From TrEMBL:
It comes from Chloropsis hardwickii. One of its GO terms (cellular component) is external side of plasma membrane. One of its GO terms (molecular function) is integrin binding. Residues 3-74 form the Integrin alpha second immunoglobulin-like domain. The lineage of its organism: Eukaryota, Metazoa, Chordata, Craniata, Vertebrata. It is a single-pass type I membrane protein. Residues 81-169 form the Integrin alpha third immunoglobulin-like domain. It is found in: Membrane. Keywords: Glycoprotein, Integrin, Membrane. Its main location: membrane. The gene is Itga2b_1. This is ITA2B protein. One of its GO terms (biological process) is cell-matrix adhesion.
Amino acid sequence: QGQKKLSCNPKKENGTHVVLCELGNPMKAGARITVEVELSVSGLEDMGDAITFHLQLRSKNSPSSASVMVTVPVEAEAEMELRGNSLPATMVLPTSWHWVAGSQRLEDYGIKVEHVYELHNKGPGTVSGVTLSLAVPHLLGDHVLLYLLELGTEGGMNCSQHPVLNPAQV
């Protein structure tokens, strides 16, 4: 008939975490009650795609009672943001500049431009196993558009690259 807030107490029982809620004592014979329980569980990043709860109604009058398993899907939520910058932001080659094939001088390959990309997790969940694929146009037909010197990462990320970086060993 009326709604009551339950008093629940977490405890450990036989190596598992148990939440014990007292429903009423004594309870009238034939009483019907509906209980809604909201649980907040942290550290689910490595739990897989579901978590299972074992629910059991116990009474001091009948100590053995069946338990029911409830499986709840776990969905991680995280918003990723990619930011990018070129340094310098704009570049103009002088009309007198010409590419020098086979040269070992960096200036014969053009003006140095550094591209910096930052991948941010805006949360709320943590992420792992993220793959960022970045395509850089380095050829225009048979002509070199961008001569790629190096690729670096920070923050414990792994990197695989294609095409070959710095093929002329400038």
